[in-house]
Amino acid sequence: ESVSRFSNGVPAGQGVVWKMRQSYRRVFVAAAAAVLLAFSAIDLLPQSPRSARLGWLWAKSEKRTSAGGYLPPPWHFEGRAIYQLYPVKVQTAEKYIPKELNIVQLGGYTLGGWYLANYTDSPACDKPKFGELVAIAGLVWNPPSSCAWASHVYVGSKSAKIHGEKEVGLPENLGRFELRQPERKPGLLGRLFPPRPEVTLTCKGREVISMAVPKEREGWRAGVPVTMNMPSFSGYTRNKPGLLNYWLELKARISLVSPSCKTRVPEASPLKELLSNRPMICLDFEKLRMDVEPPKKFNPLKTFENVPFPFLQARRRDGIEEEERSRNRGGFLSSLLRRREPPVPEPAA
Description:
With 349 residues, the chain is α+β, with helices and mostly antiparallel strands.
């Protein structure tokens, strides 16, 4: 029997009904997708990795802040980071740390260094993938929190620079990060010990720092999974004249890098004075996931009570006489071995 058909295979007499059903299905699928996308954007659904990505796509298209195209808080970062620590003289750290903050020291030194990160995803809308270098001038103590103070910050994204200056109060600079793979030495030693990739940071056409970083590690070599909640201080800049305090949650696989990263700092670099000593330790943060909360105003305390460890000194830098400064400079052991003067008897009435 012969049956007339459409070119698309639909029997005659059912074309209108079939088209209506197809249109209804398309409308239903589009409406369901829109509802799921909206729910994932406002955190009403369980945040699986896929739903989180959908929410980010929604936020990137609709919820842009005024700070140069940056997503709203909490700010989420993913990638890899390396943290190398250096001993820094207190006299050197005082040049970069505000006088309102107390420097934690041991034997005339505090703990500084640099933090190098390569973000594969970030809140920056113009360039989510960028590099960041943070120079640490030293540790500051203000009860009940203690953290590192960033003296220089270099980022590879313009929107991240604007956001850091206006919203977080960091001394941001726009830099350029270049990765170079050195040539391997011939022979067996070159195969057993291949050279590390080199990262060079330049700012305004001048080299700031260059370091040899280890290659990425996978599996058990990536390190131990660790979750940390750390406080951070910022502020005392032109856009944020007061002191700010913000918290960040960091999840990563941390391992010890041995030997430490070889670092080359030019004489004219602003980091030369901070990184002049030999590095102490280097940590590798693989599979980094970091959530940063917006900063809040913080009032520094003018007290030295509740110092966490007696051998660490929180050195006061304002409103103290030189006699008291020299007396407290010795530390905990000096206070035990110091000769005590006998009390002066009161005159008889």
